[in-house]
Amino acid sequence: MNFTSTLTKPLTASFYDNLHFSDKSVVITPLLDSPFGKEIRIAFQEGQTMKEHQTKFPITVMTLRGSVEFTVESVKYILNAGDVISLEGSVLHGLHALEESVVRLSLHKGDSVARVEGVLAL
């Protein structure tokens, strides 16, 4: 199989470099913005929450460290390190950290980091 990348130089990032947590709020850090999607790190202290919200685009969420309660339309899922969940657009969801946690959020190219940051104001 021949695969030719449209990127002339690969984009790289680490979900663990310069990682920090805040007692005041969840910490949202954009890591990659490629021609086809966006990768965001979300750092939670134990007990921190992102209230229920939705986006018109599909998302994928992976717990890299710790454990989070991920609510999808009132159904609760526990996502431990290594667990991943994917949602279509317009699905109500929220997150609550059961312990200090690092989460990877993969966004559709049409979605925005500003929208994710706006969830903290809810």
Structural features, described:
It is a single chain. The longest helix has 7 residues, at 113-119. The chain is globular. The mean pLDDT is 93. A hairpin with a 3-residue loop joins strand 1 and strand 2 (37-44). The relative contact order is 0.26. With 122 residues, it is mainly β. The strands form 2 sheets. Strands 1-2-9-4-7 form a 5-stranded antiparallel beta sheet, with helices on one face. The chain has a 4-stranded antiparallel beta sheet with strand order 3-8-5-6, with no helix packed on it. It has one domain (32-119): Jelly Rolls. 6% of the residues lie in helices and 46% in strands.
List its salient traits.
122 residues; four-stranded antiparallel beta sheet; 6% helix; mainly beta; Jelly Rolls
Oligomerization state = single chain
Structural class: mainly beta
Architecture per CATH nomenclature, i.e. the level-2 architecture: Sandwich
How far is the first residue's CA from the last residue's CA? 47 Å
How is the CATH topology named? Jelly Rolls
Backbone shape: globular
Outline the low-pLDDT stretches.
Answer: none
**Global Rg:** 15 Å
Question: Can you give the mean pLDDT?
Answer: 93
Strand order of the largest sheet: 1-2-9-4-7
- CATH homology group: Jelly Rolls
Characterize this entry briefly.
This protein has one helix at residues 113-119, and strands spanning 27-33, 37-44, 49-53, 59-65, 67-72, 75-80, 84-87, 93-97, 101-108. The protein has 122 residues and is mainly beta. The radius of gyration is 15 Å and the shape is globular.
